Amino acid sequence: MKENMLIMKVRDNYKYFGGLSLLYGFIFTFCLYKNVSGITFPICVAITVLFAILFMRKINYRLMKNSIPYLVGMGMLGVSSAFTTSTFMHFFNIVGILLLFMVFMIHQFYNDNIWNFPAYLQRIFILMGTTVMSIPYPYWHGGWFFSKNKYIRRNNTLIAIVIGFIVAMGILCVTLPLLLKSDIMFSKIFGEILSYVNFSTLFWISFTFIIGFTLPYAFFTALCHYNFPEGKERKVRFFDPVIGITFTSIVSLIYLIYCAIQIMYLFLGMSTGLPSYVTYAEYARGGFWELLFVSIINFIVILLCMYLFRENVALKVILTIMCGCTFVMIISSAYRMKMYINEYNLTFLRILVLWFLIVLALIMIGMVISIYGKKFSLFRYIIVVVSVMYIGFSFARPDVIIARYDIAQWKNTDKQDFFYLMYETMSIDAAPEIAKIDLDDKEWALIENEYLKQTMYNYFLNISINNENIYFRKANYSRIRAKLAADQFLEEHKDYNREHNRM
Description:
single chain, 3 domains, DUF4173 domain-containing protein, transmembrane helix, transmembrane
């Protein structure tokens, strides 16, 4: 009954919920249409939270104080999107905001304090599936509302006109292109008229609006279904811990031998030495990805053992040993990557991997605690760790860090490194740092110096042209700084442009 009562309350108050969804659709379109990096992005995040609170108040739900951290995290991710031009960061900022928003709303509707890690993941997927299934609700409820509205029923002519207009538009979408192809004069006359209408823009604006209108209503309706399993009861029985003890003991023994070799040859390798045919760079690169993958597998195995097997002291000790070996593997991976960076400089992937290793190490600390602490919420711990670390990573603007590091290592820099900084990164965040390079300086005496000058000039010319007239919606901190740096560089280094010199 609880589900039906809430759904019926939403339906009966369609004027309120549908009106808010309609208003949100307009705001969503204005803020985010072809724009996930401008100043309107964090504004849209703030408005999303406001509308969520307004939705909840209508059904007598109040904002909980312990929900504030989720909102702060969402806000900071929104602001960080307006500080960078990295497409990678923009994508994962959106993912992070959506996940935090789902956890925030689940926390508002349910008592999630008793859920363990698998239970929380299960309910997130249930909510996502229910949201998809609830997409028709804003239209079903809208149809019910209009059919019950006496004023609208009295004005059948208006409804008929709207329906007729929609049908006509649908027919013309098919027939008009065929008519344009069938007659040259008709095509010429209508072609001139239609040249003033950008149908592609109209389509995508309409599509964005439909998303902004539909998803909030569908998501809120999905929450009102209250279709999550009650309590924290297990549907999967506990298995005999002897199974876990047996296979984890064998795996742990191999891990201990491997960790001993890491300590002898990698961490103490400078004194012990490697075979003459193996360089430290090759040794570092050779096993990094494998170790990273094994560390992730260990995380999954330990997590499954914690929730599938009956509690056992011996199993806990072995899982702790596995965690310890995983720490050694993480340190080994980080050390290998550090050696490789010393040889071949920084790239986005390398700095991302270092960040991931730190996050994985912090998560493993939480796993060790959860092995012995029944009341420890591993899911919330992971949410906090990943959120804090990712927000810091996003605000740090990795491309700027990469540019500063690689430029500082100018003795190890070649033409490929310059091309990477200018054309292979996913942003123009590093443009102000690249603008500081003076290829006329003797320290930067590189092969094909003149070609690099022209390349740098073209790089900043493209930035300057592509970022003309930055208006309010698309105002972005890094984009503005890159534009200013580009204009200054072009003014100060006109001699870099061969075509300009010919003139």
